[in-house]
# Entry
Amino acid sequence: MFKRKNAADILRERQHKKNKKIHDLQSVTHDPGLPGKSKPLSESEQDAFEEVIPQELIRERKHIRTQTAARRVVAQSGTFIFMVSLAATIIVLLPFLGIGTRKPSVQNRLEPTIDLKKEDIEAKVIKEAESLGLDARFSLYVPKIDAKSVVIENVDIGNESEYLAALKKGVAHGKGTFFPGQGKNIFLFSHSVSAPEYIKTYNAVFYNLKDLGLGDEIIVYFSGVKYVYHIDEKVITTPRDVSFLTKDYGGEALILQTCDPPGTTLRRLLVIAKPI
# Structure
């Protein structure tokens, strides 16, 4: 790094340069009549070299510093103006590039709230089913007769060994029929017995199904959702009648079936309910 000169240094340097110039001038100024002899400078020639005054040096240094600072400000101002111009250009071009102009849709903003509501509802359904000793994945509850059981899904109604095994575990769901919420026929069946003492032996969930009337409520828990149905119709039919499985009830229909009279195979009792 260069050491900054003070006023005294500058004064000595200029005085040295002045003396050198005078000496050089004297060495090259010859008398025309005497070759090789130098001619001394006149007073007017020596006065041509301006005397350096310290105060003037200080003022000159201030002037130089001012000029340097001004040049620095101009250079920085140019850089600043360039950066502002560049930023403005980028901002103008953003819409054409499609950056930062797309706003999230209302639907996207609402999705987390909707998901949270679904989770809350499902949690309540699960808690309600568990309080009844049921599984919210697939269970049945008939409040009037206090009938409640898990539902074994997709049981082949034409395979006796299969449906008898399923009925020991709970109410059976007929294979090939639909599930709650699908808008079609849902077929559930279970045992009934001739006396209450056989209910536990044969898991006769539908023993009191005959006591239900029109308008009574049936609840099905399926896949974490609660479905509520009201009884719309009661039918007595033959054991071989399966037309109810494909009958059009004008929308979703829950069909419960058991033996009639209880504990016999003479007829079938059908309870048909519609969703609320």
Q: What stands out?
A: Residues 54-97 form the longest helix (44 residues). DSSP finds six helices and ten strands in the chain.
